[in-house]
């Protein structure tokens, strides 16, 4: 019998200090069968930011060799609320194309993109910026769908434009049905929100869930060391009919690298029981 619930995976961001092949081996060795693949510049270098077909093939080769399934690729193609001239826009589209190609090569279900720049202050106005993010996500969803890949967004992210429940609502109200929502417990709680309210607002749109503990203003805590009520939040998801998967995204800063495997295993057992 697998050690963890079959719907619970582990993000490679949890072991971002290791090279990709080593991180995959660590995750598989713990007993997980599924991953989210981190492709976030400055956060996780498992996928090169300068992404060409050679890099896509190299990353895909490592992932396939690990035997792990890929639920999503957590990527970034730039600040979606910042207007671009033709040259930068073409480069953004090229990066999107490569991330979608990587999703296809790794048989990932979805590509995840952010909800705006790492800045709470709009470039123009909140309404204009949120509308621009929604339009960019809608366009990216069409590109992804053309190759059989879903497009999701983490609609509430503590450090980005849409950083709280109200802004997540503004964004979600503008998103087409083809763009799914990723719920991250840590960002909801760190922003002062309630996971149960997040589910009440966005339940039918939630496609995937990130698991990490938090306290107000701090998203970098190990599971069990913050104030997140995982039991209440997971029950709300179940009551809302959520049938998607979960991923431990343990970008924690309260443990050493040597402690990460045991912390991931402990979190996996706890969350599996609650699921």
Which properties best describe this structure?
275 residues, alpha/beta, eight-stranded parallel beta barrel, globular
Summarize the structure.
The protein has 275 residues and is of the alpha/beta class.
Kindly estimate the percentage of residues that lie in beta strands according to DSSP.
Answer: 15-25%
Q: What is the terminal separation in angstroms? A: 16 Å
**Main β-sheet, spatial strand arrangement:** 1-2-3-4-5-6-7-10
Rg computed from alpha carbons, rounded to a whole number of angstroms: 17 Å
Main β-sheet description: 8 strands, parallel, barrel
Unreliable stretches (pLDDT < 50, length at least 5) are none
Structural class call reads alpha/beta
H-E string: EHEHEHEHEHEHHEEEHEH
Helix content: 40-55%
Total E-strand runs: 10
Tertiary shape: globular
State the helix count: 9
Instruction: Provide the residue-averaged pLDDT.
Output: 96
What does this structure look like?
- The chain is of the alpha/beta class and about 280 residues long.
- Helices cover about 40% and strands about 15% of the residues.
- It contains nine helices and ten strands.
- It has helices at about 20-30, 55-65, 85-105, 125-145, 165-175, 185-190, 195-200, 230-240, 260-275; strands at about 10, 35-40, 70-75, 110-115, 150-155, 180-185, 205-210, 215, 220, 245-250.
- The chain has an eight-stranded parallel barrel, surrounded by four helices.
- Helix 1 (about 20-30) runs parallel beside helix 2 (about 55-65), helix 2 (about 55-65) runs parallel beside helix 3 (about 85-105) and helix 7 (about 195-200) runs parallel beside helix 8.
- The radius of gyration is 17 Å and the shape is globular.
- The two termini are about 15 Å apart.
